[in-house]
Write a structure and sequence with these properties.
The protein is mainly beta. Helix content is 5%, strand content 58%. It is globular, with a radius of gyration of 18 Å. 27% of the residues are buried.
Length: 237
Amino acid sequence: MSRPLWRGLLVLGWLATGCGVAGGTDTGTDGDNGGEVQETQGALLPWAEGHRWTYRVTVSGTVSEKELSVGALEAVGGTGPLSAEKAHRVTSRKSNGEVTLSWQTVSGERLLRYREQSFDAGTTSAKSEEWWNPAKLHVDMSPEHLVKGTTWVETYAETKQKTGKSPTTETTRDLWTVVSEAESVTVPAGTFTAVVLRKTGNSKTKTYWFVRGVGKVKETGEETEELLGYALEPTAP
């Protein structure tokens, strides 16, 4: 089960007091850092059970929050061709009660998304579901795909199904571009040096700012997400 949103907000409370470390976990800092750029190391998106991030989400001027938490490995499930694969169950919980479940895991240096379900607030039956074959790229962390100016195309079959409707499948192609290897970005959690990636597909463009040892700190496109805080559980020896 995922941690409820208030746990993410509690982490932010610890950060605001300047503690920096909560319960033995590595956490982000609050937004008032005097403009200091935080130098970080490690994976572009640290990925393990227990890791969680809290974001401020802005859509058409409306502001809310969401917490993203990584759960245990389990079968992807569903009816897609990759249902037997193992992936982490990821919970995205918005402050308005909406929940999204997805199944994602790292394969080599690529974080892949296999399946996703969306739920309205207070409901237990998914209103929609999506799956991909091959699995859809979340982020490619390989050195050759982190060089400024590099572009590549990801192709997969995307199947969507809404409650009471038959599934529809179409071939989707996403063009990825490395915009910057080191760009300063300021979000509520602080100022960081980020790798900037852009994804264009189906007439939609999203831009992502990833920071080593932290993960995604900002996203723009259909909505804007900005990192409020994060907590990375220690990796078991």
